[in-house]
Q: What sequence folds into this?
């Protein structure tokens, strides 16, 4: 007959599970997907974009600031509720991450090595995008090696902007296109498919990522090309799927970093 478990044994087992859980929470793959590390990782990008918009994207004669189309769409959405402001999308992004941090009850402790890892990982994830761009370039003459997933609100030619202005646009694309098409669009579509239509979790998530990618492709084609160019449309759809998968697997911070780094490289090379 086996001996009954004692309270001391149960306590030791529970303590072991707690230690394992604590260790898991200190891993890079966990920390890099948590709101506090995402917030600290993205704050410099938000600051650089807002400062760059004033310095490099503002018409000094009229005071008009050129913006990413995604940022304009977000501002228009807030405007429906009577809330306006030039910096509103950036403030909203920071607020969402702060609220998420409070709700999650995660420790308010930042690991510098995790932030460095997020930067390195973001850079690594850009390589498949360049391979994809080159492959589609060979299949469709309409696609150039410098094509980047960024769209200006008024559809101006990006090559006419200065290098600092293009870098600012690239950072803004990483921030606000990912906020719009990944964090918000995928969440909304997931709500529709899984919560309302009662689809299975995996099927609902795949459908949400795919539809968000389609919207991402149409957004760029309509904003920057003035007509259907199938090589570019295929690239943007594939890039949308790629960013959607990366977002679902590695979180918001890494996908924003990858998007911004890719666009910086592509837009500066394009110049």
A:
């Amino acid at each position: 007959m086996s001996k009954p478990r004692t309270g001391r044994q149960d306590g030791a087992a529970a303590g072991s599970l707690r230690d394992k859980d604590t260790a898991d929470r200190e891993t890079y793959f966990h920390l890099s997907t948590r709101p506090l590390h995402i917030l600290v990782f993205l704050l410099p990008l938000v600051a650089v974009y807002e400062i760059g918009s004033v310095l490099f994207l503002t018409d000094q004669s009229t005071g008009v600031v050129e913006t990413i189309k995604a940022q304009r769409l977000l501002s228009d959405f807030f405007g429906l509720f009577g809330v306006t402001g030039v910096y509103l999308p950036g403030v909203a992004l920071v607020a969402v991450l702060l609220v998420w941090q409070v709700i999650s009850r995660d420790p308010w402790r930042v690991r510098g090595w995790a932030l460095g890892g997020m930067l390195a990982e973001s850079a690594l994830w850009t390589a498949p995008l360049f391979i994809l761009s080159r492959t589609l370039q060979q299949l469709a003459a309409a696609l150039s090696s410098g094509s980047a997933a960024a769209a200006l609100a008024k559809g101006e030619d990006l090559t006419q902007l200065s290098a600092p202005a293009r870098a600012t646009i690239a950072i803004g694309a990483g921030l606000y296109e990912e906020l719009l098409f990944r964090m918000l669009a995928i969440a909304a579509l997931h709500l529709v498919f899984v919560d309302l239509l009662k689809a299975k979790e995996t099927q609902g998530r795949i459908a949400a990522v795919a539809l968000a990618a389609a919207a991402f492709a149409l957004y760029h084609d309509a904003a920057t090309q003035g007509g259907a160019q199938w090589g570019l449309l295929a690239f943007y759809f594939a890039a949308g799927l790629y960013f959607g998968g990366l977002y679902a697997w590695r979180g918001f911070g890494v996908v924003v970093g990858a998007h911004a780094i890719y666009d910086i490289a592509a837009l500066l090379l394009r110049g």
